[in-house]
Specification:
Order of helices and strands: HHHHHHHHHHHH
Helix content: over 70%
Strand content: under 5%
Radius of gyration: 26 Å
Shape: globular
Length: 362
């Protein structure tokens, strides 16, 4: 088989694989989640295997069991403590949003109009407030109906239960056999390309480690800092705004911008003064300083190297093509592709094509 034929065969296999992933996205999702969890836990399992207790070293299975139990405990804490708090915050938002709409249309909008120097002719703030509140009631009612249908739907419940059972089982087996899987993939590599592919794989692993174990820790740390700070200020929706800003910080500056706008608006509505909005700005200033000077350099470094526009496009494109699976894998795949592009760029800069003198080939 010629080189050109092999290239076309590789491209055809890549397209076929992408189409297969697109078709099987709902089925692949729990396996992808399990793979992410196994990737998270494998370094800790490797460390536990090397621990010696009175000349006894735990085997792979024992180490996997310990890490697996720790993951379950962490998940239990999230489900028992964090989820009820977020649900309570969402209920509070649903109750308070009509009041916010009425205050914004009756006070803030006329004030902005007067400062901007134009009149709201024919504008009735009360009518706008009533329209927005009715619209919000319809959205809330529709959302609750959807949740009710999903909760009563036999197929949806069956799928959820299947995933809840499947993900822990697959995660356990992937953790136990992770090194064997990596070794098997390595053994299948063509020997003439093994060294180069291994170097790229190491770089990709560093990038993914920075993303998963670094960026997610930064997001969690910022979410906790914002939540604690806003709670001390007295913001009612501190958990919802703080954790939301922390999650959105995966895109540089987006989390802080959205968090500041929401938190300042909540502070102005709740306290009707200037002191609390200034305290909110102080909370986010401290968070940004901590992220820039310590969290990101210490936990992430400069490993990911994705432009904010690339991050936004990757998440939107992944969600559009593959749904939740695409959102889950968008940034890791984009980070890995970024490494491959760097390698291709480096090889191109070293190639004869790049260094060929002007006029050659004419």
């Amino acid at each position: 088989m010629t080189t050109e034929s092999r290239n076309w065969l590789g491209l055809a296999m890549l397209l076929a694989g992408g189409w297969l992933v697109y078709l099987l996205a709902p089925v692949i999702t729990p396996f992808a989640i399990s793979a992410v969890l196994a990737y998270f836990g494998d370094p800790l399992v490797d460390r536990l295997e090397k621990v010696s207790l009175w000349r006894w070293k735990p085997g792979r299975t024992v180490a996997v069991t310990i890490v697996f139990v720790l993951m379950l405990l962490l998940l239990t804490v999230v489900l028992v403590i964090v989820v009820p708090l977020l649900l309570e915050q969402i209920r509070l938002l649903i109750r308070r949003l009509p009041e916010w709409i009425e205050w914004f249309s009756g006070s803030v909008l006329p004030w902005l109009a007067s400062k901007a120097g134009f009149e709201l002719k024919g504008f009735d703030p009360a009518q706008l407030a009533e329209w927005l509140k009715e619209y919000w009631k319809e959205i809330s009612s529709a959302a609750f109906k959807v949740i009710d249908i999903i909760s009563r739907g036999g197929m949806a419940v069956a799928t959820l239960l299947t995933h809840l059972i499947l993900i822990p089982v697959v995660t356990f087996y992937l953790l136990r056999d992770w090194d064997l899987l990596i070794r098997g993939i390595h053994d299948l590599l063509p020997r003439n390309m093994e060294a180069e592919i291994s170097r790229m794989a190491v770089d990709v692993d560093h990038v993914l480690a920075a993303f998963f174990r670094g960026q997610l820790m930064v997001m969690l740390a910022l979410g906790l800092m914002y939540t604690l700070g806003l709670s001390l200020v007295g913001i009612e929706l501190a958990i919802l705004i703080g954790m939301g800003a922390g999650l959105l910080s995966i895109v540089p500056y987006l989390g802080s911008i959205v968090g500041v706008l929401l938190a300042v608006g909540a502070a102005v509505f709740q306290f009707q003064d200037w002191l609390h909005p200034l305290m909110v700005l102080l909370v986010f200033a401290v968070g940004q300083a901590a992220e820039g000077m310590y969290l990101t350099p210490k936990l992430v470094g400069d490993q990911i190297g994705l432009h904010p526009v690339t991050v936004i496009f990757a998440v939107l494109a992944g969600g559009q093509l593959f749904g939740f699976l695409g959102i889950l894998l968008a940034l890791p795949v984009a980070a890995a592709l970024n490494v491959l592009v760097r390698h291709v760029h480096q090889k191109y800069r070293q190639s004869d094509l790049y260094h060929s003198p002007p006029g050659r080939g004419t």
